[in-house]
UniProtKB/TrEMBL annotation:
Belongs to the QNG1 protein family. Its EC number is 3.2.2.-. Pfam families: Q_salvage. Catalyzes the hydrolysis of queuosine 5'-phosphate, releasing the nucleobase queuine (q). Is required for salvage of queuine from exogenous queuosine (Q) that is imported and then converted to queuosine 5'-phosphate intracellularly. It catalyses: queuosine 5'-phosphate + H2O = queuine + D-ribose 5-phosphate. The keyword Hydrolase applies. One of its GO terms (molecular function) is hydrolase activity. It comes from the Eukaryota. GO terms for biological process: tRNA modification. Keywords: Hydrolase. This is Queuosine 5'-phosphate N-glycosylase/hydrolase. It comes from Zizania palustris (Northern wild rice).
Amino acid sequence: MEAVRASAAWVASRSTHVKVDLSEIEKVVEKIQGNVPKVEWDFEGIHYFDNSPLTIQYLFVLDAMNFCFWPDKELTYDHLASGLKLALEKDKTALDADRLQNYTGPQLRQLLNWPRPLPIEEERVRLLHEVGMELERSFGGEAANLVKSAGNSAATLIELITRHFPGFRDHSLYKGHQVFLYKRAQIFVADLWGAFKGQNYGEFHDINSITIFADYIVPAVLRELGILKYGSNLSCSIDSNSEIVPGSEEEVEIRACSVYAVEKMRELINKKFGKQLLSIDIDLWLWSCGVQNMALSHHRTLSIYY
């Protein structure tokens, strides 16, 4: 997404709390010799997949709720993905558009087999209702029809998602400039591409337009690698688990600089080693490193976008 790349670069050029260390990017690229370890989609075996439109419905609902797990120390993305998977295996109609519109908080917990209220539960329920209503109104109740209408273009699919589903409009205002990050919309495209192995519903002629997915984990890994440098106040806030205000300069800089840093890494790998890597591949590698080292300190923001 050029809007994401351009606005991330704009933030990075003016950032005061977060800096991208280009020399450290060069060190990392040299160390790995331009070879980013290939991480398969669903390497943990937690997702639903049956090679049908139901898989797309699953992924769209999953990514509608794919945000903010950290306030509950035991809850992870895995619980959401595997919970929805088990629900579908028990009842193929569990994610039908008409049912999505009527779930309550307790019913959502029951669906996911989770014993207590979810973080920002009311927002997750609201987004389920939004997804169900708009799928029914504009796409015959099926996320597969949404995907088909994009004509195998990742950029078009993201534009359709953000036009029809306000809950996916991952925008921020930074120093008077609008910043687009689109984490959940982009990760839906990446999930389709990964699940269907670039074929059928996962075929996109412009998959290279997708950036990384600016979340909590990737910035923490980039910081550990020395690529992201935080100012002392921000470092103290993150290391002490203090909350970072959503939409604040610090929060926008962390996410935007992460996108920018990986774009520079991708460019350098191409320049030095002649390899055309996808941002998705780099994101999967960094994310898998992060989930295997949960001791890493990450920023904490109550947000529906990641």
